[in-house]
Amino acid sequence: MELRAGNASCENGSLISLYCSSQEVLCQIVGGLSHEVPNNATFDSWQERIRKNYGFYIGLGLTFVSSFLIGSSVILKKKGLLRLVATGATRAVDGGYGYLKDLMWWAGFLTMAAGEVANFGAYAFAPATVVTPLGSLSVLISAILSSYFLGERLNLLGKLGCVICVAGSTVMVIHAPEEEKVNTVVEMASKLKDTGFIVFAVLLLVSCLILIFIVAPRYGQRNILIYITICSVIGAFSVTAVKGLGITVKNFFQGLPVVRHPLPYILSLILALSLSTQVNFLNRALDIFNTSLVFPIYYVFFTTVVVTSSVILFKEWYSMSAVDIVGTLSGFATIILGVFMLHAFKDLEVSWANLPRTHRNPTPPSPAPEPRVIRLEDKNVLVDNIELAGTPSPVEKPKVFIIHS
């Protein structure tokens, strides 16, 4: 164990840091062994009590605000990209960056930034497996707004798919696991050094590089899953960085020496790179494909990667019961079903007006007339029937029938 004194005189109020392996403890000298409680200790206990009692609900509220802002930002950015196409400039999918001069696109970007800030706060108060599934609300918001402001059709099955996504997210929240408590930057650093997470992160990074430099140039404009997969894989790094920076901010206000630790700077760099990559490829996907398809599919892929990363990093499912595991998987399967309904039946004309209707008293069909049966008994009856078959028109020549007896 190593002891470092922040104040050599060890007077009242001075700080002493104790280092043992990778753990660091910061102690403050408060004077003699009196029973007085310092003011900052009272404040810390009040803050901790608020966090324990209302932290989860604060996280949910921030998640709702974030979903609304992010869902609205997609519409604003899409309108900016459409205005760019109308002017004849190089499209985003072709490598153009003309949207950076459009005010509508910047309004969408700033709205998304505000939503990400709210999402940042939500990750600091609630576990990632609760915050991330609630992103389905942004799917619902973007789908509804795109049908009104972008003229993109959303039929009855698409609306039912949005509702199913929300229902599945609710089930996941009810059965969400409790993440392992990580309270300091040092603990977060030790989590990131875990062998399982390192292997998972390397696989994600290699897959992302292959998609960006090999697959995307060939199939990105024809397959909607290419750009969305890139954004989702990169999203795992951005969520991990946000979670670590949230712990850093909390430790900073608690008075811990987080400024000297290298992890916050590394996480800030990872967050900047991942967000810029996500914005780039999400703009390409929005430029080509329908908004009501891009955002739901992106949500499913993003949620899958983030939940998997959170399980590996924080080992959240180790203490879960079988009922909660089945409930979480069922909720996520329900979300996938809702997105499938939104994607597979988008071209069908299905609405309340053209649904099949059942009549209570249907009109019975009129009976068909019975066919007339002619029995050919002899030659005379045959001649009479031929004459009754029809009178020849004036234009037609008379027909002569010869019957040999």
What's the total count of β strands?
3
The major β-sheet equals: 3 strands, antiparallel
Discrete helix count:
12
The structural class is mainly alpha
Order of helices and strands: EEEHHHHHHHHHHHH
Beta-strand residue fraction: under 5%
Low-pLDDT regions: 1-8, 32-44
Shape: globular
Strand order within the widest beta sheet: 1-2-3
* First and last CA, distance: 133 Å
Helix fraction, binned, reads 55-70%
Mean residue pLDDT: 75
- Rg: 35 Å
Walk me through the structure:
The structure is a single chain. The protein has 405 residues and is mainly alpha-helical. It contains 12 helices and 3 strands. The protein has helices at 39-86, 103-125, 128-131, 136-149, 156-174, 185-192, 195-219, 224-253, 263-288, 291-314, 322-344, 379-388, and strands at residues 2-5, 15-20, 23-28. Strands 1-2-3 form a 3-stranded antiparallel beta sheet, with no helix packed on it. A hairpin with a 2-residue loop joins strand 2 (15-20) and strand 3 (23-28). Helix 7 (195-219) packs antiparallel against helix 8 (224-253). The model is unreliable at 1-8 and 32-44 (pLDDT under 50).
